[in-house]
Design brief:
Layout lengths: L3 E2 L10 H32 L16 H8 L3 H30 L6 H8 L1 H4 L2 H11 L6 H9 L16 H25 L4 H9 L4 H30 L2 H7 L10 H11 L3 H25 L9 E2 L1
Antiparallel strand pairs: 1-2
């Protein structure tokens, strides 16, 4: 197998082009700081205060909110459910998107139309998407019941997909995956289109089969995009709220109670914005830790001109 050689770069961090790049992103950084870092800092400050709905004062209680949250009966199930949902979402979204990417990277007559159709789920607003899937999974007249009962004969009667603890988590995962796969596919397609065809041709001459070319060329060259997709989908999984809100309401029991649902329930149902902010901070910490884990497990190298030996 021919090797890739990284061309050394001069002035990588402080070169003329790099300084121009830094200046170019300053406006975006200011906006991101205002709309992202600002609310995060405010939520962090609230998490150390006793702030309930209608309260005039906000006394500083330090870690008391976190202690009460950890001791509550809602926290442990919501944390476990969030991790299950996130892992399932990231794994299935990535694998399905990778399969679509490999298919759409090939030339066939309807390629353009398939790419356009693939964007439809992503273009539908999340709430509208959730409402559509609630109708599909309806226990009385849902399309999915008609398929599994009359189409395949798997069940003898209609099932309560949203009300059964054995199926509830799967029913909120399906619409999330359906919506997220298109964007992940587009990102992977953009990455795979930048891989020089000459690398595959050289590998063929060396006798590498399809699997070897995929493992030795496609995956390593896609690593930066894979890292981006995994980070983005992890954040989307941790913060997913609409499907729980519309489809199950956190039930049955605590089966689909996630941290994002716990934020809403604690803040707007119980009126405790201090503890609600605690949950939001914990979600941010989990997302940050998983992001750092991805960067640790999937180190990327920036390639300049690629030469083949």
């Amino acid at each position: 197998m021919r090797e890739l050689e990284e061309r050394p770069k001069k002035g990588r961090w402080f070169g003329k082009d790099t300084r121009f790049g830094y200046l170019s992103i300053v406006p975006a950084l200011i906006l991101m700081s205002f709309f992202s870092a600002g609310p995060l800092v405010y939520a962090l400050a609230l998490s150390f205060q006793k702030y309930t709905l209608g309260a005039v004062e906000r006394p500083f209680v330090f870690l008391e909110n976190y202690q009460k949250l950890v001791e509550s009966k809602f926290f442990a199930p919501s944390l476990v459910n969030t991790l299950i949902f996130t892992v399932g979402a990231v794994v299935f979204v990535f694998l399905i998107a990778l399969i679509f990417t490999l298919i759409l990277n090939e030339k066939f007559r309807a390629n353009t139309w398939v790419r356009l159709a693939l964007l439809i789920p992503w273009a539908i607003p999340e709430i509208a998407n959730a409402l559509g899937w609630r109708w599909i999974f309806d226990s009385n007249w849902g399309v999915w019941n008609g398929i599994v009962v009359y189409g395949f004969g798997i069940f003898n009667s209609y099932q309560s997909w949203l009300g059964n603890p054995n199926y509830a988590m799967g029913t909120i995962l399906v619409p999330h995956i359906w919506k997220e796969v298109p964007l992940a596919t587009i990102l992977l397609l953009a990455g795979i289109s930048t891989i020089p065809k000459s690398l595959y041709e050289a590998a063929k001459l060396d006798g590498a089969n399809v699997l070897a070319r995929f493992r030795r060329i496609t995956l390593p060259m896609l690593r930066p995009i894979i890292q981006l997709v995994l980070v983005y989908e992890t954040i989307q999984g941790i913060t997913s709220f609409a499907y729980v809100f519309v489809l199950t309401g956190g039930g049955p029991g605590y089966t689909t109670t996630t941290l994002s649902w716990l934020v809403w329930m604690t803040s707007f149902s119980f009126g405790d914005f201090g503890q609600g902010s605690c949950v939001a901070v914990i979600m941010s910490i989990i997302a940050l830790l998983l992001t750092l884990l991805y960067f640790r497990l999937l180190p990327t190298k920036e390639f300049g001109a690629v030469t083949v030996r």
